[in-house]
């Protein structure tokens, strides 16, 4: 697939994800947070376009290490930082950059998954260093919350070089407590097996808005959000997932949307932000859109 199409799909997916209303516990078109607003996410979705096009344009299927995934994650975060004062899309970019590179070297949609795995396996120490820089610019926690290779540590980059730690290696360390790291060091099981399938099915049955909201809820119901886990513990994250699963049991009820709004209010009032679920939803939407263009 050509790089311009891939870039447009990444932009559209980012904007469709944040436009989901009401997407419980997250910023959406009628819910702003004190430090970030709906328009911030729309802008973020647009400004990553050039970077996505570049990674898709420059990846070489015969030299996967040259994909420089970390470099492009960093570039996308820097460009977002030029326009937005907050971390709106680090997680989305971490997923969309390798998916975009994989799409560019795939002959059909079903090669994307194996190509993401291969690209991640060929990441380098420089990719890891660039990822650390991106995390620090975005002021995001969770990728290195332990003594080894702490992203905020003064000697982190030196330690990465001395120990030859690639981007895959550092994400694998974080995988037990960070769902995005887990996705990127396995085979993107949530994105491909849950999100992509759910969104693609729903698009044939309902509106784009409801497709996004229901996909978000489906992912949340099956996959406890690790952003909530890191802030409030695994038990609270599992409780939120159980609430989402119970909510989906009323999907055919006349008052379903009222219940969704109530869930949104509950999460917002209790500062329970399923931000990782939003990132996984954006990636799932991108995969669905890619599948339609191959």
Helices and strands, with pairings:
Elements: H1 3-19, H2 38-47, H3 49-58, H4 69-83, H5 90-104, H6 111-121, H7 125-138, H8 156-162, H9 167-174, H10 179-184, H11 189-203, H12 208-222, H13 226-232, H14 234-248, H15 256-269, H16 275-293
Helix pairs in contact: 1-2, 1-3, 1-5, 1-16, 2-4, 3-4, 3-5, 4-5, 4-7, 5-6, 5-16, 7-8, 7-9, 11-12, 11-16, 12-14, 12-16, 13-14, 14-15
Defining traits:
globular, 294 residues, 0% strand, 67% helix, mainly alpha
Order of helices and strands: HHHHHHHHHHHHHHHH
Strand content: under 5%
Structural class: mainly alpha
Q: Helical stretch count?
A: 16
Proportion in helices: 55-70%
Catalogue the unreliable spans. Answer: 141-147
The global form is globular
Mean pLDDT rating = 93
Quick synopsis:
Helices cover 67% and strands 0% of the residues. It has 16 helices and no strands.
Description:
The N and C termini lie close together (7 Å). Helices cover 67% and strands 0% of the residues. About 2% of the residues have low confidence. By secondary structure, it is mainly α. Helix 1 packs antiparallel against helix 3, helix 4 crosses helix 5 and helix 7 packs across helix 9. The longest helix is centred in the C-terminal third of the chain and has 19 residues.
